[in-house]
Amino acid sequence: MRTWKENNPVAAKVIGIGVSVLAGLFVVASFVLPNRPENFELAQFTRLPVEALIGAVVLTALPRRPRLITAWLGGIVLGVLTILNLLDVGFYQYLGRGFNVILDWPLFTDAYSYLQDTLGGTGALGVLIAALVIPVVVLGVSALAVVRLSNVMARHRATTTRSVLVLSVVWMTCQALSLQVAGVPLAAEHTVTMLQYRSDRIRETVRDEREFGKTARADTFGNTPGSQLVPDLRGKDMIFTFIESYGRSAVEDPIMAPGVDKTLDSSTQALAKAGFHAKSGWLTSATYGGSSWLGHSTFMSGLWVSNQNRYRTVTASDHLTLTDAFKKTGAWDTVGVMPGVQKGWPESKWYGLDKVYNAFQLGYKGPKFSWSTMPDQYALEQFQQRVHGKKHDKPLMSFVILTSSHQPWAPIPKMVPWNQLGNGSIFDAIQKAGNKPADIIADPTRSKEEYGKTIQYSVTALTQWLERYGNENTVLVFLGDHQPISRVSGNHASRDVPCAIVAKDPKVFDKIADWGWSDGLRPAHTAPVWKMSAFRDRFLKAYGSTPHPSTG
């Protein structure tokens, strides 16, 4: 290399200058890199980071050996912060929140399983390799870039000192006058702000874990005897159903809403002909874009279960769930139908379920629809054949989770005649004729369109099942677990989801007359909005339960 430089001095100088410029651009870009997808705009990268000026002063002043050690360490730290910002971008895109360095590592296993189901083994492996290589590359390039710049600054100390002095004056002027470009401040201290943000998040996470443990031990109905729980629903077959990713955007977004609203309205009319009535409102979910189990546990427990630590804490406690409240009475048998569960599920004990049917216990022999193990229509028919349609000594309390509307919304199942469902092989041709996930994932408009179709499918399957098999004692509560990812719902979408109660018995609705909910399956835009954690206590009190608090 040295010989080539001696023989090609001009080319070597040009390449050296080019590499140094690229190193400088990389370092500056790392200092101002946004951690939210909506902030990726050119103005963000025209900012002057104060951290770069401070780093230049420190590296220029140090002797050679301490300077190189500091440059290597500083480059690695800068690379780590860059990776964390990129993780934030991904988490905001899919989960509507930043990456939590304490809680979120286990989610990568779930993400890989999801990729295997949607992209196949080869595609998932490719993403995994990229996910492992990119951080290594970022760390290496970041460290090498800082070291190279430190060497350049050391060779030109006088020039570096003058340049830093001028740029410092520019930074202070921009800061004092609040100068901006396209609404973005020119003077940046983004890295310092992000370090403070991450430090605060870690402290909050540790404190929240300790405080939530106390919260979970206190329960408004913790000591209520079974005889005083939901007495006004005795004799009713209760069904609590979640529709995956069924969020407010499906009902109000201009692309998705026309089809979804038409389905909700036509389903309301069809149910009315069958003698059913419905009331609906809005609930604000504790999660967004994914982590459905947080929405399920929030709704059922009456606690705000917004992260994995809280979930582990509450499911390890004896905090009363809605489903367990029915079991505690001794007047209901409890069952879960979980086509999305493909491994051990110890949480069933906390939910108070006597029996759980997972993905492998419903006799399905048809194709998977991306992540979803089986179409909702098939899962509901199996619920009827194996549980609901059989004679039982007690009414049923059923907990059903429908999965066909899980991203990436390709391919999508279609309704088939109920008497032709068989073992599910009828869906082979439908699955093969459907869209490929890769064709939908990268296109926001198509993602919205196909997402809307899956919600229409799930609502249709559920309401047709109710028309077909419901009776005077059936009470259905169904809702979404969370909004879809921001590519579909938008960067600033609410976390609201629709919730509906459907029954034939008018007494069921008399008990909730003061809720202010809308008639029908489609909540009005102005319908009440409650936190999802508020539903349990409101529901229990509405149907005659007597509070007997426990303090833990």
UniProtKB/TrEMBL annotation:
Primary site of residence: membrane
Keyword tags: Cell membrane, Membrane, Transmembrane, Transmembrane helix
Residue ranges of the TM segments: 12-33, 45-62, 69-87, 124-147
Keyword Mitochondrion: no
Compartments in which it is found: Cell membrane
Domain named Sulfatase N-terminal: residues: 278-487
Topology versus the membrane: Multi-pass membrane protein
InterPro entries with a match to the protein in the record: Alkaline_phosphatase_core_sf (IPR017850), OpgB/LTA_synthase_biosynth (IPR050448), Sulfatase_N (IPR000917)
Pathway membership, UniProt: Cell wall biogenesis; lipoteichoic acid biosynthesis
Protein name: CDP-alcohol phosphatidyltransferase
Organism of origin: Streptomyces gibsoniae
